[in-house]
Amino acid sequence: MSVIYLIGFMGTGKTTTGRMLAHELQYTFYDMDEVVVDMASQSISDLFAEYGEDGFREFETKALQSLPLEKSVIATGGGAILREENRNYMKENGRVVWLDASPSEILKRVKEDTSRPLLAQDKKRAIESLYEKRENTYKQAADFKVATDGKNTEEIVGEIRTLLSC
Ligand code: S3P
């Protein structure tokens, strides 16, 4: 199986890690959020505003299923694991790596960000409550977990390559 899916909460470094991993493996990198934006010709915030979270999730599932299953590293959106359909699809088609980080570390990383509608209000509270709600689902969706607190991208990529023997 030559597809690697990176899952994990917003701000856990899926995109940065995925780019470096893909580069090292000479795989193609895809960022699902970018695929959704290209597909819909609208920003994530606009999609949430126009169609709500459920509508956004429809685009997300379509984007996931549209990506090539050959030598790809795919950084998923933080909520892509919420649908059982997506979790099954990823497990069937590739290896799923969960990049985990503590809520306090996540808060540091997304403090200045304004592009994520789910963190638009009280960021600290939103992160803590969403993280708690989702933690088990990440666990369930993943084949492997990498704890990222205090690690740089090189170290995280190295750990993934060791875990996956690639
Ligand atoms: C979301 C995560 C975001 C993006 C959207 C919803 C989520 O992606 O898909 O804002 O529900 O966790 P990142 O994890 O890349 O920030």
What molecules are bound to this protein?
A: shikimate-3-phosphate
Fraction of residues in helix: 55-70%
**What sort of overall outline do the alpha carbons produce when their principal axes are compared?**
globular
CA radius of gyration is: 15 Å
Average predicted local confidence, pLDDT: 97
Q: Quote the distance from N terminus to C terminus.
A: 11 Å
Provide the low-confidence segments as ranges: none
Total strands: 5
**Biggest sheet features:** 5 strands, parallel
Order of helices and strands: EHEHHEHEHHEH
List the defining traits of the structure above.
about 170 residues; alpha/beta; 5-stranded parallel beta sheet; about 55% helix; binds shikimate-3-phosphate
Structure notes:
This protein has 166 residues and is an alpha/beta fold. 56% of the residues lie in helices and 14% in strands. It has helices at residues 14-25, 32-40, 44-66, 84-93, 103-110, 123-141, 153-164, and strands spanning 3-7, 28-31, 72-75, 95-100, 144-147. A five-stranded parallel sheet has the order 2-3-1-4-5, with helices on both faces. Helix 2 packs across helix 3 (44-66) and helix 5 crosses helix 6. The radius of gyration is 15 Å and the shape is globular. It binds shikimate-3-phosphate (S3P). Shikimate-3-phosphate (S3P) binds next to loops.
